[in-house]
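Batch 3, record 17
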Amino acid sequence: MKSVRIRQDIAAMQGYSFISGTLDALSERLGIPRDQLIKLDTNENLYGPSPKACAALAALEGDYHIYPDIRSTALRQLLAEYTGVSAEHILVGCGADELIDLTLRLFLEPNDAIIDCPPTFSMYSLVAQWIGNCRVIEVPRHDDFSLDVPAIEDAAFASGAKLLFLCNPNNPDGGVIAPETLRRLLQLPLTIVVDEAYVEFMDGEGFASWVPHTPNLILLRTLSKWAGLAGLRVGYGIFPLDIIEHLWKIKHPFNVNVAADVAARATLQDMDYVRSIIQKLIAERQRMYQLLQTIEYLTVLPSQANYLLCEVHGMTTTELKRQLDQRGILIRNYSKPSLEKYIRISIGKPEHTDALIAALREIAP
Ligand SMILES: Cc1ncc(COP(=O)(O)O)c(C=O)c1O
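Prediction for the assembled complex:
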């Protein structure tokens, strides 16, 4: 008799597919010392956290046995100063991933729909599937990765979708949404979630200031990228008051741990340093963009994030990745048909770019 009856849709599902492994495991697999690996596959900040964040973590003695503040009050106040939006609009989570999950759980009832615009960050549709009993309506982007706005509008009316997920700048290409496009889409009878995980690398400010006067706009942000805290898992959302009121009810009480909270607060109090790192990464993106243009089997796309997407000609991305792996340079490739000719490379330090370009010159199709 079958006594374990997990959901059949989950039993049949494929999970999150891209796992590069720990640096130790990669070092062992590739036979390359850990400190010689150049990790350009998951858009982390290779400068690491701010020195003040590291010092605050080192000084964190004695509080580990006490649960963290359920409301992350001090951190939300600093985020309010950082974003210019009052703390009552801000909810902190265990990475932006948790805010994606919470938002979907707040809105979706059985058979509800969301609109996703692939190629984009995979977690929106994946988490929707985890929640189950809902429809993910895909409105593919144009070949240049821009949004197909009329098709989104048609899909919204045809499906009655409750949520539209947009990523700005988009992962994987780094393209951005024009304000007039967002303004037009906000007329739709749905709530728009704009994922601004990479907004700090963008020209301009993003859309945080719109939220308090826009009842159907949610913004998601993270400290994983610009702040170098990916391993500690801190993200936040900026929500209209009518929405955040209900999110508080379904949030796990102690979702932001003491170490994450301390490091995030110290980072936000060290913004001169962190801004200087962001500027270095933006300058390096420009330099890497120019250098990648000299590699004739790649076509590099302009990006406003901390990564560059390249189309690969004359060889498979699996082969290119394998050859870069062998040299200790980790990049991202994809199995989805729409991205199978593309690789995404995170921006690191100048020496990482130099090693990458030297390797790409060696590897010719
Ligand atoms: C667009 C986008 N949103 C959200 C996330 C997840 O961020 P976090 O590390 O805060 O969960 C990522 C991580 O790669 C991302 O690329």
